[in-house]
Structure formats: structure tokens, C-alpha cells
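Hi R.,

As promised on Friday, here is the backbone we talked about, encoded as C-alpha cells. Could you run it through your design pipeline when you get a chance and send me back a sequence?
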């Protein structure tokens, strides 16, 4: 893993000092490596090497990396649910109490800790307070503000920051579906906001194709542009996946507007990555672009709620400063 050296060092020291907490809460932007660090942490707790962290070569490390170690369990909110179901939490608690197949440290990695409702959180509290000997919980959350206080108070918090653009570019260098145009690749890296996972989703979703199709059409026919954007969003079957697709598209459009704003403020110095977007438009008035950017950011927040996705696409197109 690239980045997060401070987190890795801190966890390594906790292992060396035999002061591993019963529960950790890894928080930070989605896709920056929290889940990967949780797996490395589980491997380090089991590692038979002498380096103080996972050696990546011993049998314990290899089984953890391959996802076949019986002492590592990973739990994720079902894709068709908006909240972490209490039934799944009860399964986690039941499994925590089952006699382990192999001696030594056990790790339960629980994604979407910011999607617990009050019932699911309460079902987990007893196990977090008094976990079986040798069991460590690692809860993952994108936004610490959305984690219920009852969960937060029982975990050791570990904060993850965004990676820098050079690290994101290095991680993604061998990925498929990369745009040929280097300006476009740079724009997507910036739109990922330091999250390799987010960049990977954009490539898998074909976000750039959706955005470029929108930009090519929006000046002459905003309604057709909105329809194109909506069609790309509705290629996903699940409603939550559709919202995610639209969030990523709006993120790239925000990056385009930010580049145009930079060009309007400092035309001779700003790297206009937005030139990679056909029909994106020129720099235009800075006040106009700033207002458009604020409207777009507000719309992204509404999409995270229950905004109608088709109406959101219409709003983007009708308010776009072509």
C-alpha cells in the first residue's frame, strides 16, 4: 500500500507493545485504503515474521491476503440496503462467540459503520464492550460524523487522509479503461480527490464517457444532455448504485468547473485540464462559475439523500454555464 505510513507505524507500535485495542474505527474518505490497511493489520497480528508488521511471505500473511484465513472475517452492508441491518449484526455477534478454529488473534472487519441505525448499533454494543479474548474489531466508516456516538465511544479512532495525486496516479497506472488523453487522465485523478477506490469506480462505470457526452450536448440542447446523463446513471440496477454513478459524474463535472474557475482567475498560469472535455466551454466570468460550482456541490449533497435522480440530471443541464 502507498501512503498512510503514520497509521501503519502507529498500529505496528501497538502490536509490538502488546497494546492492541479491542475495537478500532478507521475513518476517512471512501476508497483511500482503509479496508486494505485493515487486512494488513489482521495479517500483522498473525504474522510469524520478525519485522513488526506483515512480512507478506509467511503462511499466515498469505492466507489473510487471499481471504481464506478462518480467523479473519469481513462483513459488509448488503448492496440493496441503505442501513446496516440488525439481522446481520446479530450474525456477527453470534459468530464472535463461536469457538475459533485456530488459536491466536482474530479480526472482524466491518464495513459501513456509518450506516448503522440505532437498533443495529445497540445489537453490537455488548460485543464491542466485552469481546471474546483475542478478537479485535476493525470498523470502517467514510464519515465519522455519521457514526453513532454509542459506537464511537467504544472504539479507538484511526483517521485516514486522502492520498496525493502522484500516489493515486501510481496506484492506477496499470488499471484498465484508462482514457488515452493524458489531460483526461489527470482530470479524473483530480476528481477522485485522493481516493484510488473512487477513481477505480469511475473507470468501471465509464464516468468519463457519460460526462463527455453531457458536455458535448449541453450547450445546444440541455434536455438531451440531461437525458444522456440519466441514461448512463440508470444502467445500474440498484438505486444505491445509480446514486453512486451520478455522484461520480457530478464529481468530474465539479473538477471541470474548478479548472474553468482557475482559468478565469489566472489565465496565464492555470493548467486548464478542462480542455480535455469537448464542449466544456471557456473560462467565462469567475463569479458565474463560482455560483455554478456552489449549485453543483449542493446538488451532490442532495443526491446523497433522496433527491429524484432524473430531476437532478435536469437541474445539472439547465444550470450548466455553457
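Update: got your reply. Pasting your designed sequence below so it's all in one thread:
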Amino acid at each position: 500500500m502507498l501512503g498512510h505510513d503514520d497509521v501503519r507505524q502507529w498500529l505496528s507500535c501497538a502490536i509490538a507493545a502488546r497494546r492492541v485495542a479491542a475495537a478500532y474505527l478507521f475513518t476517512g474518505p471512501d476508497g483511500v485504503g482503509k479496508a486494505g490497511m485493515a487486512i494488513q493489520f489482521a495479517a500483522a497480528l498473525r504474522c510469524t515474521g520478525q519485522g513488526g508488521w506483515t512480512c507478506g511471505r509467511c503462511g499466515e500473511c498469505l492466507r489473510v491476503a487471499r481471504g481464506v484465513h478462518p480467523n479473519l472475517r469481513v462483513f459488509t452492508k448488503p448492496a440493496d440496503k441503505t442501513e446496516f441491518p440488525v439481522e446481520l449484526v446479530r450474525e456477527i455477534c453470534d459468530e464472535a462467540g463461536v469457538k475459533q478454529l485456530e488459536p491466536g488473534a482474530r479480526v472482524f472487519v466491518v464495513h459501513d459503520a456509518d450506516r448503522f441505525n440505532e437498533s443495529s448499533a445497540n445489537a453490537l454494543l455488548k460485543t464491542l464492550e466485552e469481546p471474546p479474548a483475542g478478537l479485535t474489531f476493525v470498523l470502517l466508516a467514510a464519515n465519522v460524523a455519521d457514526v453513532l456516538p454509542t459506537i464511537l465511544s467504544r472504539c479507538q479512532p484511526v483517521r485516514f487522509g486522502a492520498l496525493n495525486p502522484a500516489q493515486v496516479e501510481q496506484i492506477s497506472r496499470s488499471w484498465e479503461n484508462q482514457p488515452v488523453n493524458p489531460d483526461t487522465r489527470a482530470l479524473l485523478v483530480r476528481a477522485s480527490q485522493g481516493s484510488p477506490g473512487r477513481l477505480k469506480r469511475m473507470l468501471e462505470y465509464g464516468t468519463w464517457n457519460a460526462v463527455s457526452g453531457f458536455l458535448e450536448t449541453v450547450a445546444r440542447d440541455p434536455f438531451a444532455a440531461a437525458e444522456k446523463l440519466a441514461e448512463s446513471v440508470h444502467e445500474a440496477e440498484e438505486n444505491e448504485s445509480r446514486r453512486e454513478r451520478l455522484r461520480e459524474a457530478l464529481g468530474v463535472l465539479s473538477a471541470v468547473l474548478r479548472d474553468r474557475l482557475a482559468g478565469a482567475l489566472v489565465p496565464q498560469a492555470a493548467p486548464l485540464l478542462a480542455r480535455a472535455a469537448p464542449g466544456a466551454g471557456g473560462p467565462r466570468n469567475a463569479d458565474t462559475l463560482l455560483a455554478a460550482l456552489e449549485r453543483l456541490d449542493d446538488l451532490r449533497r442532495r443526491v446523497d439523500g433522496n433527491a429524484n435522480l432524473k430531476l437532478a440530471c435536469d437541474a445539472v443541464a439547465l444550470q450548466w454555464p455553457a
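One thing I noticed while checking it: Residues 165-319 form one domain.

Thanks again,
M.
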